[in-house]
Design a protein that fits this description.
The protein has helices spanning about 5-15, 20-30, 50-65, 80-90, 95-105. It folds into two domains: about 5-70, no CATH class; about 75-105, no CATH class. The longest helix has 20 residues, at about 50-65. The protein is elongated. It has about 110 residues and is mainly α. The chain has five helices and no strands.
């Protein structure tokens, strides 16, 4: 998979996650802090270094999102809507439009 393909895949993941992205990050960290579905006695089941690693990962991924201008990817509108695509290809609306509309977002 090329680097561009990876960026597209990540962008689509963020787009599908929409504004829930920060909640998903929080849940991922919280899930990693429990063991066997329970919080360990005396505190979380995570050592200080693991917590630092998770914070570093979260900070890094947020920087990549910001630097790649993907913060609001879920609000991006396709370059062409379904009616415009139907007119260009002289076709009737249907399920086959979604991949074409998605491709305008990739572009």
């Amino acid at each position: 998979m090329s680097q561009n393909d990876e960026k597209l895949k990540f962008g689509w993941f963020l787009r599908d996650s929409a504004s829930r992205w920060s909640s998903l990050q929080f849940l991922a960290v919280a899930k990693s802090m429990v063991k066997d579905g329970k919080v360990a006695k005396g505190g979380f089941a995570i050592d200080e270094q693991s917590l630092k690693d998770k914070i570093f990962w979260q900070t890094t991924i947020n920087k990549v999102i910001k630097d790649s201008s993907l913060n609001d990817i879920h609000t991006v509108k396709p370059l062409l809507d379904g009616k415009q695509i139907c007119a260009i290809y002289e076709m009737k609306p249907g399920k086959m439009l979604k991949p074409l509309i998605d491709e305008t977002i990739n572009f």
